[in-house]
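pasting for the record
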Amino acid sequence: PYEGAPHVPEQVGTLLTPADRATTEGAEPAPTRNPMPARRRLGPKDTSPSALLRPEKAIPRLLGRETELARLEQWCHRDDDFDVRVLTGSAGQGKTRMARELASLVEARHWHTQLVDPTTPGADTVLALPATPTLLVVDYAEARGAQLLAMLDALLEHGVRERIRLLLLAR
């Protein structure tokens, strides 16, 4: 044992319940009032308290961004056929959450909203767009230059059927 540390058997003896002591001494154990519940599998890793802060959970209300959100909503409803905005900020500052809030607002007005999948070719994203006003959100846009270029090329080549807003989120 380490200097100054009690011996393990002494610690164990103080942690035993009367039922445990009776068992170790060969006597019948006392009946337990609250048996241990059966073990259960742990859920997915996103069940930690910090997972509640993920943008897709939208648990805490978005506070202090009303002005920016209103400006983005006005931008969406302008008459231009196509427009791009870039929203930048450090990690964890609320870019994705802001985009999700904006998507909720415009969906309520019958817009199609889409978080662009990084694995989908840019032209395929554009060619699959519906004939309704659309908000496309590209997260980590700074790392998706080839996909963005393909999207823009497809828009130039095929045109637009309805208003399209492209919101780029970058660090």
